[in-house]
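Predict fold of Phosphofructokinase; 310 aa.
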Amino acid sequence: MPLIVTLTLTPSLDTATSTAKVYPEGKLRCQAPVFEPGGGGINVARAITHLGGQATALLPSGGPTGAHLVELLQQEGVTVDALQTHDWTRQNLHVVSDATGEQFRFVMPGAALHEDEWQQLLTKIAQLPAGTLLVLSGSLPPNMTTSAVTELLQCARQQGLRTIVDSSGDALKAAVAFGGLELLKPNQSELAELTGQSLEQPDQVVNAARSLISQGAAKRIVVSLGPQGALAVDAEQCIQVVPPPVIKRSTVGAGDSMVGAMVLKLAEDAPLADMVRFGVAAGTAATMNQGTKLCSKDDTEKLYQYLQQQ
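Predicted 3D structure, encoded as C-alpha cells:
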C-alpha cells in the first residue's frame, strides 16, 4: 500500500468550551477547555488513523501552541512530520452557548510561512517516494499566493506523487488549472464557479465534472452535495451515494472524515463506487458525534455495509 501524507499549511490548535449564555461586555465564565488538533490535512490524517489506516501529517509548527498540537496528534497515534517555524501556530476558539445550543467559532489567521521555511517544506515533499498519496487540504498562509500551490504541485509531479486536493477559492482554482490530480473534492457551488456553469440539474453537475476531467484537471471528482450525499465521477462512471438516515448532531469534521476514508480506498485501488460509499459512510459517521469529533471506525464500517446493500 502506498504511503499517505497530508499537508496542512495553516494548522491550528483548536480550543472548545461552553458557557451559560453569550452576551457582550460581561465576563463569560466558561467550562474547562478541550484542546484538539485542527486544520484540513491534519483532520484527514486523524480520520485515516481512526479508521485503522496510517498517514503522516506534514505541517509547520511554531511556538508552544505548535508543540501542543504535535503532542495531541501523537497521543492519537498520528505520525507527525513537523517543520519548526518562527511564527506561532494559530489557536482557534469554539464556544457553545448552553442557553441556545448555538456554536460560535472564532478562527484566527494562519501563521505566516517564511521563504526558507517554505523551501524546507518543498524539500520534504521532494524526498517522498514516488507513488505516495499526497493530500493537500486547507487554506494558504496569509503571506502566500496561489503561485505556491503551483510550485507545490509541480514539485509533487516531478517526484511522481499522486495528489488529492480539498481546498477552496483561488487555491482550488490554481490546483485545477495545474491539473493531473488523482482526486478533487469540490462542493456543488465550487464546481459551478470552477466551470462557470449554473448547476441546477443533476446532469449539469455530471457534465461539469466530466468537463474538468476531459481537460485533465483530475482523474476523479467527488462533488459534495450536502444532505444529498456525494456524486463521484470519472471518465467512465457516475455514482451518487445518498447518506443513510441517522441522527445528526454536528457537521464539523464530516468533510475531512470523508476525504480520509476515500484516500484509504484509493490506497487500496478500490473501485470508484467503493471509494465514494466509504467516504459518505465516514462523513455520515462524523455527523453522529457531538462537537468536533471525527468519524469512528465502528460507525463507519456499519454505515458502509448498509450502503453496500443499497
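The chain has a mean pLDDT of 94.
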